[in-house]
Write a structure and sequence with these properties.
The structure holds two protein chains of two kinds. Chain A is an alpha/beta fold. Chain A is built from twelve helices and eight strands. Chain A has a single domain, classed as 2-enoyl-CoA Hydratase, Chain A, domain 1. Chain B has a seven-stranded mixed beta sheet with strand order 1-2-3-4-5-6-7, sandwiched between helices. Chain B contains eleven helices and seven strands. Chain B starts with a helix and ends in a 7-residue tail after the last helix. Classes of the chains: A alpha/beta, B alpha/beta.
Chain lengths: 274, 285
């Protein structure tokens, strides 16, 4: 493997327009994909792509954020920033997966939930919150894969999973580095500095216990040799689903609860180094 | 004996509430930021920090809020350790936390407690906007989760008051994960049939809106409270135009179906008592 990239280089690779995105992953790793649309409440959001497919022959529900590759697609998908309709569609698909006992695989690559007028009026906050609550109690295996950039609650809304995987150069953070710098220092131009402090790379997040596994990428990034990244991810997913197929639904949700319950547990005062 | 302890607890809360009122920057000034009317400190205090002229609700401290809600002597604080947790070793964060602790007398941005309202015992959590804008740190998430788990274990109703600018940037991804943690704990309370009343106060935004604040069985809001996921400035930048009057205010959220009722501060205790009463057993049919 090559020299590891710096945090801000990883952000650039994670956002490279040539990086494999959810339609690429679906066609490379799954067969018989059938796309499902609409939240059954009021709309359809192309910023989330989802449906039923087979993974090594096993029916699964696969869904994730979609950025699009051409400008036309970018606009149709709102550059991968979902609206409440998108999150509610995702929830509908996940509940259906539970009904038919299909594992759920989510792909995360988003600048964040869309901060727009209509999105707010239709309850962006409520839609994300509901997903977090409901995902925590799904009784089927859930695996999330951060493939590009995973920013803010808009990423976490698809990320409450039994296993959270990250491609080697993907980033996962509370906010985009630009947003972070603009909130803390009122200067979005200091984003490179923010990248260094945010602990947003896969190795950092593995150390913090936020993710479970890092999926290796070819030297320079997945866009240079996508088939290598696909093969690595395929292996990792087979391994995860094999492990998660044994426990009962109740055991899965109990373990998932504990996994998130312990995140950021504050150490007893005095035990921590000043 | 019980009486002595109850009196001591009452005195303690009264003292903490008094300090809250002294250290709240907004409520000290005499002019209302909304209508500009000036009122004496005494008049404001008598009106529970609601502007007597326009009804603007000033933000209030957590202990003060508990002191105007709870039955005398029923307040018992749950977990209030003064930990300084800096998971990302973020430059300057420790100092910022210590300063906030000194300025507010709070150990973090939320107070959790048990207490009773008109005889109905409940678990309460109150976010305090004075402490780093009520932002969600790992410790805030931990305390809120502790409150939720206590409610589930003791089969008590849960009431959470939100007032938050969102995530605690300096704790990065671990702040984000508190959204999942608190929401997952609420899923368990829900499965046990526990009642959760969420009260949204000014301002409730970001990660708090996108987690526990939006998940109440019943959601109340104080008049005029700003409630939203993205803040008004971010939205304005995104869409490149100014926002309509009243956008993201409590009244707007009720109109759009996200709030059950808007309750003025002087009616809050009675409304909560009514809701707790409606969730107790009774009736002959």
């Amino acid at each position: 493997m090559s020299e590891p990239l710096s945090p801000s280089e990883r952000v650039a690779v994670a956002r490279n327009p040539g990086r494999p995105n959810i339609p690429d992953f679906i066609s490379a790793l799954f067969t018989d994909f059938f796309e499902q649309r609409g939240d059954r409440l009021c709309g359809e959001d192309a910023g989330i792509l989802g449906g039923i497919a087979r993974f090594h022959g096993r029916p699964v529900t696969v869904l994730g954020t979609r950025k699009g590759k051409t400008l036309e697609e970018n606009l149709a998908c709102n550059f991968g920033m979902p609206s409440p309709e998108g999150y509610r569609k995702a929830l509908r698909l996940m509940r259906q997966a539970e009904k038919f006992r299909r594992p759920v695989l989510t792909f995360i690559d988003t600048p964040g939930a869309y901060p727009g007028l209509e999105a707010e009026a239709r309850g962006q906050g409520e839609a994300i919150a509901r997903n977090l609550l409901e995902m925590s109690r799904l009784t089927v295996p859930v695996v999330a894969i951060v493939t590009g950039e995973g920013n803010s609650g808009g990423a976490l809304a698809l990320g409450v999973a039994d296993r959270v995987l990250m491609l080697e150069n993907a980033v996962y953070s509370i906010l985009s580095p630009e947003g972070f710098a603009s909130i803390l220092w009122k200067d979005a131009g200091r984003s490179a500095e923010a990248c260094g402090l945010m602990k947003l790379t896969a190795p950092d997040l593995k150390r913090l216990g936020v993710i479970d596994e890092i999926v290796p990428e070819p030297a320079g990034g997945a866009h240079l040799a996508p088939e290598i990244a696909f093969a690595q991810l395929d292996q990792a997913l087979v391994r995860c689903l094999t492990q998660l197929s044994k426990p009962s639904g109740a055991a899965l949700t109990a373990a998932r609860y504990q996994k998130f319950r312990q995140m950021g547990t504050v150490p007893i005062p005095g035990k921590e180094e000043p | 004996m019980n009486d002595i302890f109850a009196r001591r607890r009452q005195k303690l809360l009264a003292m903490k509430a008094f300090r809250d009122r002294q250290t709240h920057p907004d409520a000290l000034g005499e002019a209302c930021p909304h209508c500009g009317a000036s009122s004496s400190r005494k008049a404001l205090s008598a009106a529970l920090y609601v502007c007597p002229r326009c009804g603007h609700h000033f933000p209030i401290g957590a202990y003060y809020r508990l002191s105007i809600l709870l039955d005398p002597g029923s307040f018992r604080e749950l977990g209030n350790r003064s930990a300084v947790f800096d998971p990302l070793q973020f430059p300057g964060y420790r100092k910022k936390l210590e300063t906030a602790q000194r300025m507010t007398g709070l150990s973090e941005a939320v107070v959790i407690a048990t207490g009773s309202i008109d005889g109905h015992k409940a678990v309460l959590g109150v976010l305090d906007n004075r402490f780093l804008m009520g932002s969600m740190s790992a410790e805030v998430g931990e305390r809120v989760t502790t409150a939720i788990e206590t409610a589930a274990r003791q089969k008590l109703p849960l009431i959470l008051f939100s007032a938050s600018g969102g995530a605690r940037m300096q704790e990065g991804i671990l702040s984000l994960m508190q959204m999942a943690k608190t929401s997952a704990a609420l899923a368990r309370l829900d499965e046990k049939g526990g009642l959760y009343i969420s009260v949204l106060t000014d301002p409730t935004t970001g990660g708090v809106t996108a987690s526990f604040a939006s998940l109440g069985d019943i959601i109340l809001a104080e008049p005029g409270a700003l409630i939203g996921f993205a803040g008004p400035r971010v939205i304005q930048q995104t869409i490149g135009q100014s926002l309509p009057e009243g956008f993201q205010r409590a009244e707007f959220q009720m109109e759009h179906g996200f709030v059950d009722a808007i309750v003025p501060r002087d009616r809050l205790r009675a409304t909560l008592a009514q809701l707790l009463e409606l969730h107790s057993k009774g009736g002959r049919i």
